[in-house]
Specification:
Distance between the termini: 50 Å
Length: 256
């Protein structure tokens, strides 16, 4: 972009969250330009990167909120954590999560607010999709969304999309998180995206192993983590290309 005097390279393969491309500043510094598609979940991505300030996540170098644009640290070689293997990736996640759990306040959405939003549309989505799963799965999600928000522990900054392709190999640190969809809420919620990270293996044994390792090694309340995982996984299911995998994951976690 002209205001940052960037020389742009070929865009990366684009995800659902925005446009990204490697770039160089006029002094030769390697960066990434990201244009965020305006969306509730990514609304405060730049704010989250500012709070983390490079501690376990890519650094925010500049922002233009009017244009939904950011310059962020480039990860080189940029290999996704999923390529490290399931157990090594879980080792990284167990070490990374506590670093991301920073105290924060405004302007982030809260987990309680997000839970209310999910509860407002989830039953309708379920009925329209007519999924081949027991109604008990939806009932469990709705019960979690009713009871968990008002009984949370300490609120910290959460990355609600921290799966194994959103952590990249870098030079400044071995692994750095990218693409936050930030929320303020209790730590137990943080296991949800990792548990359903099918990049690390999709089967009942693999899913429950991730759930067991994360809750045990991070000292998290197992039942609260289970409720949040089922609830958010269903809330993110019906607009996803991975509907069947997400429903299977939620069912396996509910049954454990």
């Amino acid at each position: 972009m002209e205001q940052w005097s960037l020389a742009l390279g070929d865009p990366y393969v684009q995800g659902a969250g925005g446009f990204t491309a490697p770039a160089e500043l006029s002094d030769g510094t390697a960066v990434v330009l990201k244009l965020v598609f305006p969306h509730r979940e990514s609304e405060h991505e730049a704010d989250a990167l500012e709070v983390w300030n490079g501690d376990g996540a890519v650094r925010l170098l500049a922002r233009d909120d009017d244009r939904f644009a950011m310059l962020i640290e480039r990860c080189e070689p940029g290999t996704p954590l999923a390529t490290a293997g399931a157990e090594a990736a879980l080792d990284v996640m167990v070490a990374l999560l506590p670093r991301l759990w920073k105290s924060a306040g405004e302007p982030f959405h809260t987990l309680a607010g997000e839970a209310a939003w999910w509860a407002s549309y989830l039953p309708g989505q379920w009925e329209r999709a007519a999924p081949p799963f027991e109604r008990s799965l939806l009932d469990a999600a709705m019960e979690a969304l009713r009871t968990l928000p008002t009984t949370q522990g300490e609120h910290v900054l959460l990355h609600q999309d921290l799966h194994a392709d959103n952590v990249l190999a870098a030079e400044r640190e071995p692994w750095l998180a990218i693409d936050p969809k930030p929320l303020l809420g209790e730590r137990e919620f943080a296991v949800a995206p990792i548990v359903r990270s099918f990049e690390l293996g999709h089967g009942k044994r693999e899913v429950l192993h991730r759930f067991d390792r994360l809750t045990s090694e991070l000292g998290l309340d197992r039942e609260r983590a289970r409720g949040w995982t089922v609830a958010q996984t269903l809330a993110w299911t019906f607009d996803s290309h991975y509907r069947t995998r997400h429903l299977e994951t939620a069912q396996w976690v509910l049954e454990t």
